[in-house]
Write a structure and sequence with these properties.
The complex is a heterodimer of chains A (79) and B (149).
Chain A (H helix, E strand, L loop, with lengths): L3 H14 L6 E5 L2 E6 L2 H12 L5 E4 L6 E3 L5 E2 L4
Antiparallel strand pairs in A: 1-2, 1-3
Chain B lengths: L2 E5 L6 E8 L1 H9 L8 E7 L7 E2 L1 H6 L6 E6 L8 E12 L9 E12 L8 E3 L1 H4 L3 E5 L4 E5 L1
Parallel strand pairs in B: 3-8, 4-7
Antiparallel strand pairs in B: 1-10, 2-3, 2-6, 4-8, 5-6, 6-7, 9-10
The chains are: A alpha+beta (79), B mainly beta (149).
Chain lengths: 79, 149
């Protein structure tokens, strides 16, 4: 799955990242690059540093939100 | 306040929307002397039952996008379990019926990849993450809806 490594890094580092709850973390492979106040800033830095290589931008939250859809859809993950 | 009014069609409150690569990705493509895919025009249903905007993966693939995140989703088609979808950053444009209508432009919008829309004649669901930027008026008595933003 895409971003598998970055998501594993996020889970492993979450105890430390929780002090920045609400901010957006930029992760590349097993490297936590930095945290940012906005999604846009984290994204901008991701493209600046890593170009078209995979990177993860994720809001740091102790409890993951679940997004609801009343219409049937099929969530997709890239291989 | 910019706004536009459209007719509710058989599929419901549907708009034509433009989907293109975000500025950051555009810069990364140009830095590697790669072509920047042009904007794709899609049909998107305004769906107050969707908490997040979602797009058919074929549209995202046509733009050669790669995911930059994930979200957890619950939906009737996946039962009571939580499922994960990739998210992508795009530039999103919602236009009115007339060329003179000011479009709603949302740069760096985070959208989820989800299937099953095409059978319903649409490519995307515009969720409440976008609607929170707007006033939506659904006037069923005259078969129109309006978006103010």
């Amino acid at each position: 799955m895409a971003l598998e490594k970055e998501l594993a890094t996020y889970q492993a580092k979450l105890p430390e990242l929780k002090q920045h709850e609400g901010k957006f973390v930029l992760i590349h492979g097993d490297q936590v690059v930095d945290t940012f106040s906005s999604y846009d800033d984290a994204l901008k830095e991701g493209y600046k540093q890593f170009g078209l290589e995979p990177f993860l931008v994720k809001q740091i939250l102790a409890i993951e939100p679940v997004f609801c859809f009343t219409r049937p859809i099929a969530p997709v993950r890239a291989s | 306040m910019p706004h536009f009014t459209l007719t509710i069609d058989a599929a419901g409150p549907v708009v034509n929307a433009g989907v293109s690569v975000s500025e950051g990705r555009k810069g990364a493509l140009l830095a590697q002397n790669l072509l920047v895919p042009g904007m794709r025009i899609i049909r998107a249903l305004v769906d107050t039952g969707a908490s997040f905007t979602s797009i058919e993966p074929g549209v995202l693939a046509a733009l050669n996008l790669t995911p930059t995140g994930t979200i957890d989703i619950v939906t009737p088609s996946t039962g009571s379990g939580v499922h994960t979808a990739d998210t992508y950053d795009i530039d999103f444009l919602i236009g009115g019926a007339a060329a003179s209508d000011t479009p709603l432009s949302i740069p760096n919008l985070r959208v989820a990849a989800s299937e099953l829309f095409l059978k319903q004649g649409i490519h995307a669901l515009i969720g409440r993450d976008v609607l929170q930027r707007c006033i939506l008026v659904y006037n069923g008595s005259v078969n129109t809806f309006s978006l103010c933003f």
